[in-house]
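Whiteboard transcription, Tuesday session. T.W. wrote the C-alpha cells on the left side:
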C-alpha cells in the first residue's frame, strides 16, 4: 500500500468526526440510554459518509486500500443499522463481522507504520481493539455492556480530537503537529 502524499487528510478527518459521533451514540445505546432507532439513524448516516468517501478514494483517487478501509467502517455501521431495523434477536453476526475486521486491520497497521503514518497506524490499533471488544461483547457475550460502552466512549473522544486536528490542519498523518 503506497500512501500518496496528496491524500486528502481533511476528508479522513470528516470520516473520523462522524465515526466519533456514531461511536458516542452506540455507547449510549449499549448502556440503554438512547433508543435503538436513534443508534440506527446515526449508523446509516456514518455508514453512508464512509461508503461515499470509500468510493471517492477508490474510483477517483485510485486508492483501493483506502476504499476498502472506508468500507470496513461503513459496512460495520450498515450491519449494525440493519440489525436494529430487522429487530435482530442478538448481534452475533455483527460480532463475528467485527472479528473479520480485526484481522483485516493488520495490513493497515503494518503499511501505515512502514509508510511513516504513525498517527494513522495508532488509530488502526485503537479501532482494532474496539472491534475486538465488540466481537467479545456481541459475538461471544464475554464482555459486559459497561466495559464496552466506556471503551467506545474513549475511542470516540480520541477519534474526535484528532479528526478536528486533521480537518483544520493541526495534525499530520505522521502525528507531528503542524507549525
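and on the right, the sequence the group agreed on:
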Amino acid at each position: 500500500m503506497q500512501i500518496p502524499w496528496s491524500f486528502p487528510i481533511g476528508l479522513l478527518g470528516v470520516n473520523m468526526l462522524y465515526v466519533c459521533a456514531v461511536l458516542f451514540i452506540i455507547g449510549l445505546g449499549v448502556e440503554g440510554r438512547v433508543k435503538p432507532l436513534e443508534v440506527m439513524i446515526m449508523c446509516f448516516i456514518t455508514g453512508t459518509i464512509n461508503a461515499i468517501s470509500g468510493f471517492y478514494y477508490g474510483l477517483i483517487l485510485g486508492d483501493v486500500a483506502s476504499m476498502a478501509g472506508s468500507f470496513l467502517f461503513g459496512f460495520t455501521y450498515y450491519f449494525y443499522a440493519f440489525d436494529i431495523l430487522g429487530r435482530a434477536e442478538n448481534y452475533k453476526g455483527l460480532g463475528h463481522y467485527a472479528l473479520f475486521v480485526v484481522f483485516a486491520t493488520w495490513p493497515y497497521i503494518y503499511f501505515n507504520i512502514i509508510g511513516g503514518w504513525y498517527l494513522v497506524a495508532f488509530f488502526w490499533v485503537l479501532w482494532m481493539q474496539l472491534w475486538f471488544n465488540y466481537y467479545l461483547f456481541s459475538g461471544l457475550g464475554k464482555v459486559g455492556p459497561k466495559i464496552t460502552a466506556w471503551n467506545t466512549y474513549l475511542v470516540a473522544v480520541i477519534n474526535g480530537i484528532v479528526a478536528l486536528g486533521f480537518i483544520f490542519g493541526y495534525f499530520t498523518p505522521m502525528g507531528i503537529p503542524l507549525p
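Someone added at the bottom: The helical segments are 9-30, 36-60, 64-85, 92-114, 118-140, 145-167.
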